Amino acid sequence: MSAKVLSGTELAKKIKNELKVTVEDLKKNGVHPCLAVVIVGNDPASRIYVNLKKNDCAEIGIESQEYALDESTTEEELLALIHKLNNDPKISAILVQSPVPKHIDEDRVILAINPEKDADCFHPVNVGKLMIGKPEFLPCTPAGVMELLEENGIDVAGKECVVVGRSNIVGKPQAIMLLSKNGTVTVCHSRTKNLEEVCKRADILVAAVGRAEIIKGSFVKPGAVVIDVGVSKTAEDKLVGDVDFAAVSEIASAVTKVTGGVGPMTRAVLMKNTVKAAKLQANKG
Ligand code: GUN
Fold it and tell me: Does the CB atom of residue 95 touch ligand 1 within 6 A?
């Protein structure tokens, strides 16, 4: 294997240690960051993610409040909870774990969150601020990827950046963030012709489609940086990413693994957003 493995675990640890000090200082000044985590239904992956997020909060000294709602919760009930959390001065930031059950309109849920408490940076006001280059909060996964690149001395300016996937959570904001760092950005999706050919142009390739190991060794230019955001399970219940790690790590100069890669970075940025929200609200007094 020739590629350097970029460790999200290590960088996330560093960020969390810094946040711990910030939170201690905030508390001395009477500011107590608190994240409300809302989970609706019984999706096992969501349960794991929510538990990890609560553990991160505890590590840093951020209070977390979990609201675990039944699968049968109505949209109105969920919206009522969000209004209550919006109006609760103790709550700094709100996260509604995605996906929500099918009978709930996720867009309405996101719109209901006070943009000043938007831990995920999903609200259109915050997405718009990011789009015009004046972000308040940052989208957790794309910002985590950017921090991982920066920490490892990987400059984006002038580089061919290819993002595979166009979700609102990752693909689209990732493209905007790479562009804001002066990358030349291409976004690929299910209708892209010659995915392999386009990916092979990339100096920096970010895969975020959630399709097991679709990025093969032949998709990667020698020396490219390959970031794997995808997480899926194979028929044998094995956790894999969007990238065929064994093959790609022979060709790329740097690559992330499906565990210990982007995931911890996503959560580290979530913690940053929570602290930022607490500060914003404290300054407004
Ligand atoms: N589901 C998968 N990723 C995320 C995320 O970053 N935030 C939320 N709220 N839900 C998710």
Answer: yes
